[in-house]
Design goal:
Layout lengths: L2 H4 L37 H11 L4 E5 L13 E5 L14
Parallel strand pairs: 1-2
């Protein structure tokens, strides 16, 4: 690598430069509900419908028993952990 290629550009970004990505602030959750304890014991379909009524922008994932999930935290997702009968087994929450 030559010395010239290590130099920073002399010009500032222009309007044609891509905008910087926003910084996500995980310390302050979005407005509204963060969990739905009242949905434990209802069917996954009913729980999904009720959550979508309140927050239609959320992605709902139905998780069967004994399934593995990633540990990432997403404020646009609610996981519905269901039991063998298809009913919500634990409190649905954002993340």
């Amino acid at each position: 690598m030559s010395e010239d290629s290590k130099k920073l550009p002399d010009e500032l970004p222009t309007e044609s430069s891509p905008a910087p990505l926003p910084i996500l602030d995980w310390s302050s959750p979005p407005g509204g509900k963060m969990s739905w304890p009242e949905l434990v014991g209802v069917t996954a379909e009913e729980a999904e419908r009720k959550i979508k009524e309140e927050k239609p922008e959320l992605k709902i994932h139905i998780i069967p028993p004994n399934s593995m999930v990633t540990m990432d935290y997403r404020l646009d997702r609610v996981r519905l952990f269901v039991d063998e009968s298809g009913k919500v087994a634990q409190e649905p929450r954002l993340g």
